[in-house]
Design goal:
Methylamine Dehydrogenase, Chain H; 1 helix; 2% helix
Amino acid sequence: MPASFLKKISVILSLSILSSCGGGGGGEDVPVSSEEINHTIVKVSVSVGGDAFCAIDDNGVICWGADREGNTIVPDNLVNPSDVSIGYEHACAIDDIGVSCWGSNDWGKSSVPDTLSNPISVTAGVNHTCANDDNGVTCWGINEDLMNTSQEGVTAVSAISLGYVHTCALGDAGANCWKNDLYNISAELDPTVVPLGISNPVAISTGGAYSCVIDDNGVLCWGGAEFSNGQSLPWDNGLTPMNLNVPSDISSGATRTCVIDNSGVSCWSGYADYQRLIPETCDDGVTTCWRTYEPYKNTPQVQLDRPTQISVGERYACAIDKNGVSCWLLEFGVFTTQTNDLSTLMQ
């Protein structure tokens, strides 16, 4: 999740959560044009648990990839959109009129409340949606009543992030998280129990059932996850890279987290069974690699030019850098999309 929701700089933390989701590939290979194209890409979002993507440039919102329930079919009446987020089966954007959502409306997750006042950010999850407006945090969708009570005490909101079973926000009192009471989570794995000692958090991100912040001390994550094999694991913060150089943006998926720092992009998992360790040198002695599952332990690290925003889903991650938007398959680190012209991604 981004450090703030400034309209031209923030990236929505797309949380991905389902441990085994279908869907096709996340877009065709698109080479970066050698010609200068004046399309400023200001936002990118990866879907929750799926293989779909949305981004904003100066021509508006474009979504691509594997459609679920119409979540990649962008309404043609958006006016000067400033924010976008794509969830598992729905997507939402903010424009001059307010918040618009499209795709599935199960649990009322696409039914935007008429009480929103000057919304500045919106985040689409699996079965609920939240916005940051003059009133603070407003959420709708599954378990709406519980989620909306969280507004009390959460003021001057700078960031909101949605996990599968919980929601977190950064306000003037620091990090605040709350969960959906339809799910039983043990105290050890509870992603809403914010650790003591967090100092001046500037960014927050929710994964499948865990949470992370960037603060004065670097990156801290807590919570846990239940995997499809029935195994429950707490987040092991000892697996978080300790050599991060002034982290500035963070985004979490089902089991993986990526951070932008002064050295570029680093990604890892906090679970031993899904480990993505600190970047290491590959067999050729030159290329920087990191390890995930044993069969893929020499996976090339994604090379980006001064990345500023990142968004992580279950299987894919995307970032905006000097050359445009780049997306890659997390298990292998290979690009599926590289372009500075979003029109080339339209279906």
